[in-house]
Design brief:
By secondary structure, the chain is α+β, with helices and mostly antiparallel strands. The protein is 36% helix and 17% strand.
């Protein structure tokens, strides 16, 4: 204000009277090249100065050591807040930088995979509710979103969900980028069955190192997008209802323009598909598989649930298979059990026909066995004499 009035030709005395300040203040403001500000005079030494070198050395060796422990080690007895302030000033100097490169995703090269847990419990068959995982796969070039809810995060269900989404997409990405999800693998080691799955699809799993969220940022941002755009105002009756609503919403979400691409995923997905691998001629073997000898308790367990089996197979080796919809048990090429898979935990699923057959077998087992007719097995002893050629020896004396 002072400089503007002075530029308009108002005298310094009038400026001082109009603004109610000293004429010396007006003179200094007009002569100053910038607005006045308070500046503290630099202090050459503080109470922290004698401890600075020791703290710097300890922070360099132990970057994550708490300030309270540092104060104890160096013998600091002054203000804790002043000590923490100076330690916070020194830490960035000793911390090694970890830059993140700008990633460029070629068409068909990679798809980022992750599990998203919707913040709403889903009703299950037994009346309980549970937080269930949603497998999300996003081709990195086109940002086309694929996803579906799964019963669990165990390896068989993750591979079932992956094949379902890849088969629905119609092509196979050359790389599947995962973090250290236990159902896929950890510390560079893949879980059982994952390598065979990748070999059938001719793709490979790329596991990220810990604390590397930037390399999977595309799918991570989609997870946040689901919570702000898909979840609000929705309710679900079952996992199947969730998947139906989610699939319908994804059709619209893949038609929106992505700001960083300045394009819609639906417009780029064809270029992504063209550069990907073809689906295998033989589908991969995925799902729950087990071979057991059926016990007197004619049930088999899949995940945490028990399913009844035809009790005529008791004592024999049966093959148990399960996917996301059905649980089947086979014996000698024929089905001895076929149930809808339940997503609840610790349930017992029983086919009434199996119970009826078990009751019939128990009744048969409890009946006494009919003794065999011994007379039907009697035979003339002369037949044995003729068979061995000893006819006419009845009158011989035995020495």
């Amino acid at each position: 204000m002072i400089r503007r009035l002075a530029a308009e030709g108002v005298r310094k005395t009038q400026i001082a009277e109009r603004l109610g300040i000293s004429r010396n203040t007006v003179a200094k403001a007009v002569a100053s090249p910038e607005p006045p500000r308070y500046e503290r005079a630099p202090v050459e030494a503080t109470s922290f100065t004698p401890f600075e070198e020791r703290v710097r050395a300890m922070v360099a060796e132990f970057p994550d050591m708490p300030a309270t422990v540092l104060a104890e080690r160096v013998g600091w007895s002054g203000s804790p807040s002043w000590f923490r302030e100076n330690v916070a000033r020194l830490r960035p100097e000793q911390r090694r930088p970890d830059p993140a490169d700008r990633l460029v995703w070629a068409p068909g090269d990679a798809a980022q995979c992750d599990l998203w847990f919707p913040p709403k419990r889903i009703p299950l068959e037994d009346g309980t509710t549970s937080l269930l995982p949603v497998l999300v796969i996003v081709p990195a070039h086109s940002r086309y979103i694929c996803g579906r809810m799964l019963p669990s995060r165990q390896t068989p269900d993750l591979l079932l969900g992956s094949w379902s989404l890849i088969n629905g997409f119609g092509r196979v990405p050359r790389r599947l980028i995962w973090d250290n999800e236990s159902g896929i693998g950890r510390r560079g080691r893949l879980a059982a069955g994952v390598a065979e799955f990748c070999g059938t699809l001719a793709t490979r799993v790329h596991q990220l190192k810990p604390r590397d969220p930037e390399s999977k940022g595309i799918v991570e941002r989609r997870n946040g997008f689901f919570e702000t755009s898909f979840m609000p105002g929705r309710s679900f009756d079952s996992p199947a209802d969730f998947n139906t609503q989610f699939a319908g919403w994804l059709e619209r979400a893949n038609q929106r323009q992505v700001r960083t691409l300045k394009a819609r995923p639906i417009d780029l997905v064809d270029a992504d598909r063209a550069a990907m691998l073809a689906l295998p001629p033989i589908p991969p073997r995925v799902g729950w598989t087990n071979q057991i000898r059926l016990g007197r308790d004619y049930y088999v367990r899949v995940d945490s649930n028990d399913y009844s089996v035809d009790p005529t197979a008791i004592g024999r080796q049966v093959t148990v298979t399960a996917d996301l919809q059905r649980v089947r048990v086979r014996l000698d090429g024929r089905d001895v059990a076929d149930h809808a898979r339940v997503w609840a935990r610790h349930m017992t699923v029983t086919d009434p026909a199996h119970v009826t057959m078990a009751q019939l077998l128990r009744e048969q087992f409890g009946r006494p066995r009919t003794p065999a007719d011994d007379s039907a097995l009697a035979r003339d002893l002369a037949d044995y004499d003729r068979a061995f050629g000893i006819d006419g020896l009845d009158g011989l004396e035995v020495a």
